[in-house]
Amino acid sequence: MPHPALHLAVEIDGDGAHPAAWRRSAHAPGALLTPRRVAKVAAVAENSGFTLVTLDDDVLPPGSAASGGPAGRLGAVERAAFIAASTSVIGVAPVVATTYAEPFHVSTRLASLDHVSVGRAGWVVGVEDAPEAARAWGRPRVEGEQGLRREAVDGLRVVRDLWDSWEDDAVIRSVATSRYLDGGRLHYIDFTGEEYSVKGPAIVPRPPQGRPVVLAPKGLVPPELVDVALVEGSSPALLGRAAAASGAPLAFAEIEVALDTPGESAAERIADLDRFSSWDSAPGRPPGRLRYTGSAQGLVALLEELSVLVDGVRLHPLVLDEDLGVLSRLVLPELFVRRVAARPLPGTTLRTSLGLPRPESRFATATATATTAATPTPAREENR
User: What distance in Å separates the CA atoms of residue 93 and residue 110, rounded to the nearest whole number?
Assistant: First the structure.
């Protein structure tokens, strides 16, 4: 029996995965923060056949003093909304942390993104563990791994419940009865955690997908709360084991990629950038992540091997302007020919592309109701 097609995602934040990638970019440094740049990279990814792009984010600047890297970035959700409006097929998943951000606002922004994209939104659950991040938010620092996980779990639960707080048919728009909403199909979520409480409901109707696709690093939050676990491993065998143990509906392998180009080998390109800042010691880079360095044909062979071990991959190219072109010309077409991977179909949601069911609201009523109960008033969470 053939294995299901491998799902392909690519991280497109900044100029690439290497902290000094901007030094080999094909655009002027100032163009990084322009709409034209964002749209161009997303268009290449969509036309190549990727199912999903992700956009890293942090409240702190992405560069390092050692690399002389970029001193700023546009917000991931804002870039994702622009990409959603300029594309038609590819899924878009920004990284958003709830370590300090209010889950009510996270829920609203991501639900809005799903509406803007007509069901192509995802969410990569992140954390903010730097002391500077707490100061930037003006909040007490969340200490230790347990504290970071608690904030991620509580935030994710609140966001999911807020997406569910409007049933699918809550908006009735009845001119005859002058009723816009069925108040019986809006629900308070009444969440109380260690640091804050949220009453709800949301202020945005339920997203087209019911819930945008949730991706999270394996082990950060309980697997029953996510759709895609992002797994690490330094070899295909280790990735396969991590995927099998993830407990999530889907598991995507994290892979760094540096490909040979017509003028230089991948090793030469890495060495050129490592003169300024080491890729191996880049701030925030997870240890033990699989890295592929070499020809396009070798990457095709690796992904074919992984297709029977994981459900998808998220690629982190060395330099977007160089590696994304090789991926689009030599790697993805060969994967499609071999039926290792498949393009997403126009007019489908991200959940459909990934083979995930559309979840029902956990507050859904058993039968239709014509209740005239008052609509709950949306309420934000209390101060932390």
Answer: 9
CB 111 within 8 A of CB 212: yes
Question: Which of these ranges, 32-46, 60-74, 218-232, has the smallest mean pLDDT?
Answer: 60-74
Query: Dihedrals φ, ψ of 163, to 5°?
Result: -60, -35
Nearest to 99 by CA among 49, 59, 40, 52: 59
- Pair of tokens at residue 88: 């038609």
Residues 7-27: pLDDT tens digits? 999 999 999 999 999 999 999
Angle between helices 296-306 and 236-245 (to 10 degrees): 30
Between residues 359 and 382, the one the model is more confident about: 359
pLDDT of amino acid 67: 55
Q: Binning pLDDT at 50, 70 and 90, where does residue 174 land?
A: confident
Q: Using the predicted structure, report yes or no on whether residue 108 has a pLDDT greater than 60.
A: yes
Contact 60, 91 (CB under 8 A): no
CA dihedral 87, 88, 90, 92 (to 10 degrees): 60
Please give the full DSSP string across 158-225, using - where no structure is assigned.
HHHHHHHTB-TT-EEEETTTTEEE-GGGB----EE-SS-EE----SSPPPTTSSPEEEEETTTS-GGG
Q: Which residue has the tokens 């949306």?
A: 378
Is the confidence at residue 355, as pLDDT, over 60? yes
Q: Count CB neighbours of 61 within 10 A.
A: 12
The Cα-based distances of 91 to 174, 290, 312, 316 in angstroms read 33, 24, 14, 16
Domains of the chain: residue spans and CATH:
7-166+199-354 (3.20.20.30)
pLDDT reading at 328 higher than 80: yes
CB 155 within 8 A of CB 214: no
Structure-block tokens of residue 33: 């923060």
Residue with tokens 């997403």: 344
Closest by CA to 313, choosing from 251, 234, 225, 240, is: 251
Confidence of residue 366 (pLDDT cuts 50, 70, 90): very low
Distance CA 64, CA 267 (A): 22
Residues 354-371: what's their mean pLDDT? 76
Position 345: which residue type? L
pLDDT-based confidence at residue 61 (cuts at 50, 70, 90): confident
